[in-house]
Specification:
This protein is mostly helical. The chain has a domain at about 15-35 and about 185-280: Tetratricopeptide repeat domain (Serine Threonine Protein Phosphatase 5, Tetratricopeptide repeat, Alpha Horseshoe), CATH 1.25.40. About 70% of the residues lie in helices and about 0% in strands. The protein contains 16 helices and no strands. The chain is globular and about 65 Å long. The N and C termini lie far apart (about 45 Å). It comes from Notoacmeibacter marinus. One of its GO terms (molecular function) is transferase activity.
Length: about 280
């Protein structure tokens, strides 16, 4: 799908929150499935010790280059070293206060650390500097979702899409909002757009599969859940979703096996535990 066709999916209706959820359409075991996974801008491979060391060497050669600090800060973030990341973003912004990428990156790290007020201020600053910076809208939209400000989150994802973003997160997260409202046709389109932009992540396949299931399309749902497992077989939600299809088809043995795998990967994952109880009772 081209960027142009992606951008035409904006301007869809999104009503105020209604009492409607996926739970009205599928068993309880699936209601929470697909909501915990997220596409992320953080790639842990880029936060390797070797990569950080090479970036530090760049900073030694160019100690007043804000881009160098911004890149190393991102690497620290990807490695989970949030305090070091914040220090680098702070330094980048000291050198160049209009470096909007560093504002948005610092907002992401603050959000991950639980500083929502600080994160919102940083995202707002990034957008005030560059109103066409799609990543800042997506990041702020994710923060708004954390704050249950659903309408504001939708508007930010919508703006990123209007800007012809190639970031799959905008479509994936907007798809989750449509799914939450029971607008599964729109959700399926958005998950498909996310897949076309990032086809190696299980999250949009799980999301699309749930919307297919809500529409009674069990075969396409099953195909998506299986693809999610193929892409990453260590995601509990994917196994629980697959198990749900087996359970609905009356194949308790396969359902039990998949639910067991999900509980091994995440013993706290309620849909897997509840499903396992159902098929072993």
């Amino acid at each position: 799908m081209s960027q142009a066709s992606h951008s035409r999916t904006a301007n869809r209706p999104f009503p105020a929150l209604r009492v409607m959820a996926l739970c009205l359409f599928v068993p309880l075991a699936a209601c929470q499935t697909g909501t915990g996974q997220q596409l992320t801008a953080l790639d842990t491979a880029e936060g390797s010790t070797e990569n950080i060391a090479s970036l530090s060497a760049v900073i030694q050669r160019s100690p007043n280059d804000p881009a160098a600090y911004n890149v190393r800060g991102s690497a620290y973030g990807k490695a989970g070293r949030y305090d070091a990341a914040l220090a680098d973003f702070d330094r980048a912004l000291q050198i160049n206060p209009n470096y909007y990428q560093a504002w948005a990156n610092r907002g992401l790290i603050k959000r991950l650390k639980g500083d929502r007020t600080g994160a919102l201020a940083d995202y707002n600053r990034a957008i005030s500097i560059n109103q066409s910076y799609d990543a800042a809208y997506i990041g702020r939209g994710n923060l708004y979702r954390d704050l249950n400000r659903t309408q504001a989150a939708f508007q930010d994802y919508e703006q990123a899409i209007r800007l012809d973003t190639t970031d799959a997160r905008a479509y994936y997260n907007r798809g989750l909002l449509y799914q939450q409202q029971g607008q599964h046709n729109y959700a399926i389109e958005d998950f498909a757009s996310a897949i076309s932009l990032q086809n190696d992540a299980p999250a949009p396949y799980n999301g699309r599969g749930l919307s297919y299931l809500a529409q009674g399309d069990e075969d396409n749902a099953f195909a998506d859940f299986n693809q999610a497992i193929k892409l990453d077989n260590e995601v509990a939600e994917s196994w629980a979703n697959q198990a749900l299809i087996y359970e609905r088809r009356g194949d308790s043995a396969r359902a039990r096996k998949s639910y067991l795998q999900a509980t091994k990967l995440d013993p706290s994952y309620a849909p897997a535990r509840e499903g396992l109880r159902r098929v072993t009772s």
